[in-house]
Amino acid sequence: MQNFYTFAEDVAARAQALADPTRLVILRMIRHFGMTNTEIASYLGISRPTVSVHAKILRGAGLIETSEVGRAVQHTIKPAALRQLFTDLQRFLDLPEG
């Protein structure tokens, strides 16, 4: 039972990173446009530190990687990690195929 609950906690923690609409938009922007924190902040009309906080949550969930490009901070989405989250959620809920 403990492993089942531990697995549930892990899936919930990673899924929680996606539970904010701003983070979902940021993920899409990272995936399609490769924008820096400054560009994301400008586009969304939020502060750069706020983008950094959202990125930290996504990075903590293992869904993005972050690197510095000169003075800019750039993120890369981790498609395999997102797919694994969806697979784990499907497995945890024991959803039928189709």
Total helices: the number is 5
Total discrete domains: 1
Profile the largest sheet.
2 strands, antiparallel
Strand content: 5-15%
Keywords: DNA-binding, Transcription, Transcription regulation
InterPro entries: ArsR-like_HTH, HTH_ArsR_DNA-bd_dom, HTH_CRP, HTH_MetalResp_TranReg, WH-like_DNA-bd_sf, WH_DNA-bd_sf
Pfam families: HTH_5 (PF01022)
GO molecular function, one term: DNA binding
Describe the overall structure.
The chain is α+β, with helices and mostly antiparallel strands. The chain has one domain: Winged helix-like DNA-binding domain superfamily/Winged helix DNA-binding domain (Arc Repressor Mutant, subunit A), CATH 1.10.10. 65% of the residues lie in helices and 12% in strands. It is built from 5 helices and 2 strands. It has helices spanning 2-16, 21-33, 37-44, 48-60, 79-93; strands at residues 64-69, 72-77. Strands 1-2 form a two-stranded antiparallel ribbon. Helix 3 packs across helix 4 (48-60). The longest helix is centred in the N-terminal third of the chain and has 15 residues, at 2-16. The protein is elongated and about 45 Å long. 18% of the residues are buried. The model has no long low-confidence stretch (mean pLDDT 93).
